[in-house]
Amino acid sequence: MRPAWLEVNFDALAHNFNLLRTTAGHVQVVGIVKANAYGHGAVEVGKELLRLGAWGLAVATTQEARELRKAGIVSRILLMGSLHPQQASEVLELDLIPSISTLESAEALNALGKAVAVHLEFDTGMGRVGFQPEEAPLVKEHFARYENLLIQGIYSHFADAEEDEPWTREQITRFQQVQQVFGPGYFYHLCNTAGTINYGEYGLSAVRPGIGLYGLLPNLGLRPIARLLAKPTQVKELPPGRRIGYGGLYTTQGREWIATLPVGYADGMPRLVFNRATVRYFPGPEAQPPEPCICPVVGRVSMDQITVRIPAPVGLDQVFEVVTPDFNPTSSLWGWAELTGTVSYEPAVRLSPRLPRVYLRDGVEVARVE
Ligand SMILES: *Cc1c(COP(=O)(O)O)cnc(C)c1O
């Protein structure tokens, strides 16, 4: 196996799943595994979410759904986003539950002549996709005429359940108007992670947490589920004045030990974090309890490699944590996001499929994807 890999902790996943589900009053959980399960590996994470009792999985593209089906996953799969009419036949082929936001896609799907369950999406304040709430009576009328479409679920999506309470309350009110038009008997869902945490009482039939499953929001009791690990491919001592990396953006000050780790921006490490990010390792088994050595990333992040300054030589079997499973400002996915002015979703989804992934449950490896 390549000496750089993503380790995914299913115990932390279970912790997050149960925390979110409890917060929402034990309603169903739609396991969001779009974008390769936010970089963690959709097939293995998806299987584990189903094992934990998820109602089903949700993806953004038919390609993502195809990968799950190919891996033998037979669960419900909700295709989020507004279905494009040209993808209607793939919905049937892959046995998906599409999200319908337009009459064009409804008609294209209905015309295929096969019964299919759908979820209607309403735009209560995101402005992206979904029927307008005031169109609900009309939509209901139209759907009564589509003999092949069975409305199974009805949902909407929050724009800012993290911070904007008045707007979120407005969205909830608009969704309730839709619920009044359609009445009981539907699988209603509204809450993403932030919605689940802040408005858990509106869990309705199910919640749709993504980022929370992966534990990438701080201060909520969630636990990041992944570590990015690497072993050095070279460890060397350099004299003062040696330049390191593209552009020579770091020069050794004194005699310095430099380790090269085989991960780079093609693996998802942001190129911009050079000279600011850190990695860490726990030296020797003697130290009880071991204090980690915090090592700065020195010089530019290359496509496939980084260089780090270490306090003392280590062997090539020393494991470094390039991403720590916490909210460390310089060595976590959340920290990388902070350092690059984005949200933790982005460094997560950029974790490249080329990284091998190792899955642990109860500390024991249960799956490996190379
Ligand atoms: C991505 C997505 C989610 C999950 O959002 P998080 O903020 O990651 O919890 C839920 N619902 C829809 C429609 C989405 O596109």
UniProtKB/TrEMBL annotation:
Keywords: Isomerase, Pyridoxal phosphate. The active site is at K34, Y246. GO terms for molecular function: alanine racemase activity; pyridoxal phosphate binding. It is an enzyme of class 5 (isomerase). GO terms for biological process: D-alanine biosynthetic process. PROSITE patterns: ALANINE_RACEMASE. Substrate binds at R128, M303. Pathway: Amino-acid biosynthesis; D-alanine biosynthesis; D-alanine from L-alanine: step 1/1. Residues 225-360 form the Alanine racemase C-terminal domain. Its EC number is 5.1.1.1. InterPro entries: Ala_racemase, Ala_racemase/Decarboxylase_C, Ala_racemase_C, Ala_racemase_N, Ala_racemase_pyridoxalP-BS, PLP-binding_barrel. SMART domains: Ala_racemase_C. It holds the Pfam family Ala_racemase_C. It catalyses: L-alanine = D-alanine. The modification N6-(pyridoxal phosphate)lysine is found at K34. Its cofactor is pyridoxal 5'-phosphate. GO terms for cellular component: cytosol. Belongs to the alanine racemase family. Catalyzes the interconversion of L-alanine and D-alanine. May also act on other amino acids. This is Alanine racemase. It comes from Meiothermus hypogaeus NBRC 106114.
